[in-house]
Amino acid sequence: MSDKIRNMFSEIAGSYDLLNDILSFGIHRRWKNQVVRLAEVSGKTDIKLLDLATGTGDLAINFKKKFKSTCAVTAVDFSEKMLAIAKEKARSMNLEIDFRQGDATKLNFEDNSFDVSTIAFGIRNVDSVVSCLNEMSRVVKSGSKVIVLEFGQPKGLFSELYTIYSKYIIPYLGKIISKNFNAYNYLQDSSAKFPCGGEFIDIMQSTGKFSEIFYQQLSFGIAFIYVGKTV
Ligand SMILES: C[S@@+](CC[C@H](N)C(=O)[O-])C[C@H]1O[C@@H](n2cnc3c(N)ncnc32)[C@H](O)[C@@H]1O
Q1: What are the chain's domains?
Q2: Are strands 140-151 and 97-101 parallel, antiparallel or unpaired?
């Protein structure tokens, strides 16, 4: 499974940012800004932040841009091609980010190495959600925040419209722009199946690693942010 996912992201790396902006009408940037706010690193110094499944590095770059001198950012992804784009973006903005290739479910960091850990639109792709959450909690200090941004399924009136959009328009545009129908079909399929809201909170709770868990619903439930503090 992970090889297939890694290859898929490597294949679409070149058009990933453009499609993200087009398909979400740029709204993914607002969602990522909200992750940054919830991390509550503003006003603090000597923060060590870890962003997993960083992809082309948007969230890691967002943190580094806002907290250049107070936050050391490490960012991990298992696709070399996605990382290459992330590195080039950070270099062009003169931002120092420690990009590493690695698996979010088997991290190569000591326990208690970070003050915050984030993952945006990555956790639904990993082989084991629980292993990823366990690793995120292991590498941060006790009482630190672990923050997950992931797609959900909107409910109510909007849900019908969104289903049509995500089932037909997203794979179609994905195919035209990235030349890869399967990747954007997978995006729709994996998002439609992924546990969201209370169900994801139950998974976080089941690990026994978090307290003060809560979630925020974004854009009628298209996406969710989950926050937990490590015990
Ligand atoms: C949808 S992209 C999200 C990228 C970025 N975080 C964003 O919000 O735009 C998912 C990323 O997760 C990475 N990924 C998936 N499974 C992974 C794993 N087990 N370990 C590390 N990276 C993984 C993929 O290579 C891809 O870059």
Answers
A1: 2-154+194-230 (3.40.50.150)
A2: unpaired
